[in-house]
Design a protein that fits this description.
71 residues
């Protein structure tokens, strides 16, 4: 949802979400760093986790494959 919202707001290029999961994760990490830096400058806590464990990445890859391999 973060990448879709950012694309609709014009913050990142709107690329097809059915792409490579690793590139999606890389874009997520870049965007989360920027969002967290803005919040830190305002004295707020990070709203977006920067660290995705291997287990989370495996689960995301699995779900991504289920959704987009059927199309």
């Amino acid at each position: 949802a973060l990448l879709v919202t950012a694309a609709h707001a014009g913050l990142i290029e709107h690329q097809r979400l059915a792409g490579d999961i690793n590139s999606l994760i890389d874009r997520y990490r870049e965007l989360s760093i920027g969002i967290n830096e803005i919040n830190r400058e305002a004295g707020l806590l990070d709203p977006v986790p920067n660290v995705l464990s291997n287990a989370v990445i495996e689960k995301l890859s699995f779900i991504h494959g289920l959704v987009y391999d059927k199309q």
